[in-house]
Amino acid sequence: MSAWLRVAALADRTPASRNRYVDFLRAVSMLVVVVGHWLAAAPYFDASNTLVNVHLLTVAPWTAWLTWVVQVMPIFFMVGGYANGVSWRAARRDDKSYAAWLEGRLRRLLWPLIPLLVFWVMIVAIEYARGVRPELISYGSQVAFIPIWFLAVYIGMILLVPVIERAWARFGMGSFWALTVAAVAVDVAYFSSDLRWIGFANYLFVWAAIFLLGYAWLDKSRSGTSAMLICAGIGLVALILFVRVGPYPVSMIGVPGDPISNTTPPKATLIALAIMQGGLLLAAQRPARRWLEGRIPWMATVAINGGIMTLFIWHLTATTLVVLAAYLTGGIGLRAEPGSAEWWWLRIPWLLANAIALIPIILLLGRFERPVTRDGEAAPAWHYVLGAILTAGGLVLLAAHGVGGYGWFGLNVWGLLLAFAGIGLVARRPDGPYAD
């Protein structure tokens, strides 16, 4: 009850100037990510009574078209652009330094990672000591860390907010189109030569372009419904041309075994997807904002956002726990063949079981999203920039290889060292202790 009362108090303190639709889209897009991952994972016992894990897109290819709806990371980055634009402009008005602003943004992002990393270090060390094969340890922990790639990229965008702000102030939509052209040029080089490594430049060009759409929303928040629907139509036409005429796959998420992915590395298709989805969602902005003035929908939005990082980084760990429980109870719920009618009906209790596993984690660990404030001046900006870069590098290694590996105690030592060192740099202030 105390948690609900805290949510009610936060909802009641919401200033009238706040764009509640931004928070709503952040919450809904994260819920879509979570449910999408829970549906895409399709572990089951095959005819030889072996537990295998397949991806829904490999057994039901028609679901690739659904990814045009459930791939909502473009919306999350657009919302991130809007929110960080508001935050950075407020910091500048209050004469707040880049270092102080960056510390606050990073601490809320990185602090919740500590219990997740500690949990998986313990699990991996225990399994390694029990003699479980290293490749199984690596695979199990990698599945839980699949979404962490997003956080690494998002950290990079936050570091660049002052640069993005200046580019937007000077060039407006020209900065967006310049990044879009750069992304298309990278794709051309990617597909027309053996220089596949060049595609990784689009982690900057694609996601920064989508981030800038948040600035466009921030400064043109009253754009008409018709204009937004036209934008959505343009994005849809571009997507169709990309996948029907161009060399891009239909799925907007990576499909295991496919040689080309629209997300790894990112492709220009994601910019078209952002334009399509953003246009549709912003066309509905005015009635949605009126609806969010109601107490119940706004309190639900506040509640989800209050634990959104915990929800995001723990939801596949919850799935791992559900699969383990099903395995230990004789494979209950894991006997239907993925893609079959029976399997689809079982998605209802499957989603419910995952939610039951995740909700207590959020209630227990959501407090890490509210780090205590600090006394004294912030450290120099390079302190937080270096911490962010180290953390992002560690998260990339953990997302790619999992916490488990072949190092000391079966751990991905370098990924963990970089992540913990980076979080430590962000969390530590040499000039003062924690304060309540």
Describe the fold and architecture:
By secondary structure, the chain is mostly helical. The protein is built from 21 helices and 2 strands. The protein has helices at 2-12, 20-40, 56-59, 67-70, 73-93, 98-110, 113-129, 134-144, 148-159, 161-171, 173-192, 202-219, 225-244, 269-283, 285-291, 295-306, 308-328, 341-345, 347-365, 381-401, 413-427; strands spanning 41-45, 51-55. A two-stranded antiparallel ribbon has the order 1-2. Helix 5 (73-93) crosses helix 12. It is globular, with a radius of gyration of 22 Å. The two termini are 23 Å apart. The model is unreliable at 432-436 (pLDDT under 50).
Helix content: 55-70%
The rough form would be described as globular
Q: Terminal Cα separation, in Å? A: 23 Å
Number of helical elements: 21
Specify the structural class. mainly alpha
Question: What is the beta-strand fraction?
Answer: under 5%
Q: How confident overall, as mean pLDDT?
A: 89
Q: Round the Cα radius of gyration to an integer and report it.
A: 22 Å
Number of strands: 2
- The SSE string, one letter per element, is HHEEHHHHHHHHHHHHHHHHHHH
| Strand arrangement in the largest pleated sheet | 1-2
Biggest sheet details: 2 strands, antiparallel
- Oligomeric composition of the shown chains: single chain
Could you list the spans in which at least 5 consecutive residues all have pLDDT below 50?
432-436
Write out key terms for the chains shown:
436 residues; 68% helix; two-stranded antiparallel ribbon
Concise description?
The chain is mainly α and 436 residues long.
